[in-house]
Amino acid sequence: MFMGEYVHSIDAKGRIILPADFRQELGVTFVITRGLDNCLFLYGQQAWEEWAAKLRALPMAKPAARALNRFFFAGARTLECDKQGRFLVPANLRSHAGIALKQDVVLTGVDNRIEVWSKEQWEKYNEEVEPDVTAIADSLSELGI
């Protein structure tokens, strides 16, 4: 399970250091793709296969299912870290997440995935969501939360 929040910089070549706490669980190769809320998702191979199976099970006759499949699969790439523990974020994914070179990014552990945010977007997201967490939890109470 991934937990925690880490701030690192993206270098001039588009590489980010993967926190040591995440490396072992993520594995040697992992998948990066577009995420929701203008961030990126990193999945270990097993978690990616589980997520991909759920996407494949959606009814392709429904436009929303096709759109969701395109969103996640078209943006996906298999990556691995270099000897210094860095991974390269492709330019199209940096653009999706609003991440500029030589900028701070936030890596957050969210159960079965890691999210990569521009620091600015992460702070903005937290300012908008944090005051409403109690209301969000209440609205999900019927789901057993």
UniProtKB/TrEMBL annotation:
Q: Which GO terms describe its biological process?
A: negative regulation of DNA-templated transcription initiation
Main subcellular location:
cytoplasm
Subcellular localization, per the record? Cytoplasm, Nucleoid
List residues of the SpoVT-AbrB domain.
5-47, 76-121
Question: Its domain of life?
Answer: Bacteria
State the InterPro entries in the record.
Answer: MraZ, MraZ_C, MraZ_dom, MraZ_N, MraZ_sf, SpoVT-AbrB_dom, SpoVT-AbrB_sf
- Is Protein transport set as a keyword in this record? no
Q: Which residues form a coiled coil?
A: none
Alphabetical GO CC annotations of the entry are: cytoplasm; nucleoid
Give one GO term, molecular function aspect: transcription cis-regulatory region binding
Q: Keywords of this protein's UniProt record, alphabetized?
A: Cytoplasm, DNA-binding, Repeat, Transcription, Transcription regulation
Would the keyword Transcription be found if you checked this record's keyword annotation?
yes
SUPFAM superfamilies in alphabetical order: AbrB/MazE/MraZ-like
**One Pfam family matching this protein:** MraZ
Complex formation: Forms oligomers.
| UniProt record similarity statement | Belongs to the MraZ family.
Q: What is the name of this protein? A: Transcriptional regulator MraZ
Organism, per UniProt? Selenomonas ruminis
